Amino acid sequence: MNKDIHGFHAHVYYDADTIDIAREVCEAARNQLPVEMGRMHEKPVGPHPAWSCQLAFAPEAFADVVTWLAMNRRGLTVFTHLETGDELVDHRDHAIWMGSMPALKLDMFEK
């Protein structure tokens, strides 16, 4: 694994109609995988254009976590990105999408 990759974040996107499904998916991921589950945000936070919950994990868990999310996301959009220390590049260039690809608010990372 590349030494510049410190970890990964997967952001599960949802709305008022899908929050219960998102909670089930995120809690199942937390219970079955080596991930740290963040809060269930009921508003857009940071660069994210939708409500979201973050799942943080180590590079060694990438294959297991991403495979599990692909199989268990239940129709939700999942945005995954590297953690290298360069927020703009990580969110813009090192992105992996499952589902729709809504535009992120990247201007907050511009120098």
Please describe what this structure looks like:
This protein is α+β, with helices and mostly antiparallel strands and 111 residues long. It has a single domain (7-104), classed as DOPA-like domains (Alpha-Beta Plaits), CATH 3.30.70.1240. It is 28% helix and 24% strand. The chain contains 3 helices and 5 strands; from the N terminus they run βαββαβαβ. It has a 5-stranded antiparallel β-sheet. The radius of gyration is 13 Å and the shape is globular. The chain starts with 6 loop residues before the first strand and ends in a 13-residue tail after the last strand.
Produce the secondary structure layout.
Blueprint: E1 7-14, H1 19-32, E2 36-37, E3 51-57, H2 62-72, E4 78-83, H3 87-92, E5 95-98
Antiparallel strand pairs: 1-3, 1-4, 2-3, 4-5
Fourth CATH level, the homologous superfamily: DOPA-like domains
How many strands in all?
5
Largest sheet: 5 strands, antiparallel
Give the termini separation. 28 Å
Sheet with the most strands: spatial strand order:
2-3-1-4-5
The level of helicity is 25-40%
Remind me, CATH topology?
Alpha-Beta Plaits
CATH architecture: 2-Layer Sandwich
Low-confidence stretches: none
CATH C-level name: Alpha Beta
Counting H and I runs of at least 4 residues, what is the number of helices?
Answer: 3
Write down the secondary-structure element order: EHEEHEHE
Query: How much is the radius of gyration in Å?
Result: 13 Å
Helix/strand/pairing category? alpha+beta
- Total domain count: 1
Average pLDDT, to the nearest integer? 94
**Strand fraction:** 15-25%
